[in-house]
């Protein structure tokens, strides 16, 4: 089933001091089961929408930044609300051109279905993967299958198309 989603996407932090919009179609979605995402989300995994770095605009408030080293050894940073602590997006230094939007901060997150699962080596033992799930034990070395599955499942309207570059 292909879902239709209207751009720009909008979202914000838990308290509303930060509001944002995403002006171009996300590239992919996935569930990250790494130990950092488990801790940051306070849950079993992080639900991520991979978005182009320039497509995220804060329309209310200014995020603070925290940095850490990822399970893959990369230098990562997170943009968060200084009032409520809610994490909005993660990026990497040096930039890879993409941000990992914490998809649960979208106003409408009903259409975000993980197209793949990363860092399954630290997934919780009770988590049930779909039979045809795309699984990576650690950091993917090839995101193309995840990107293709995501882009086959969602159509974006009201903004530039995903292949418009
Ligand atoms: Zn907040
Ligand atoms: Zn993670």
Indicate how many domains the architecture comprises: 1
Q: What kind of oligomer do you see?
A: single chain
Shape, principal axes of CA atoms:
globular
Strand-residue proportion? 35-45%
CATH architecture: Alpha-Beta Complex
CATH homologous superfamily annotation = glutathione-dependent formaldehyde- activating enzyme (gfa)
List keywords for this structure.
single chain, binds zinc ion, mainly beta, 12 strands
Topology:
Elements: E1 3-6, E2 9-12, E3 19-22, E4 28-32, H1 35-41, E5 46-52, E6 56-60, E7 64-69, E8 75-80, E9 87-93, E10 98-102, E11 117-118, H2 144-153, E12 154-157
Parallel strand pairs: 1-12, 4-11
Antiparallel strand pairs: 2-3, 3-6, 4-5, 5-10, 7-8, 8-9, 9-10
The structure holds zinc ion (2 copies).
Give a written overview of the molecule.
It is a single chain. By secondary structure, this protein is mainly beta. It has one domain (3-157): glutathione-dependent formaldehyde- activating enzyme (gfa), CATH 3.90.1590.10. The protein is 10% helix and 36% strand. The protein is built from two helices and twelve strands, in the order E-E-E-E-H-E-E-E-E-E-E-E-H-E. The longest helix is centred in the last third of the chain and has 10 residues, at 144-153. It is globular, with a radius of gyration of 15 Å. The structure holds zinc ion (2 copies).
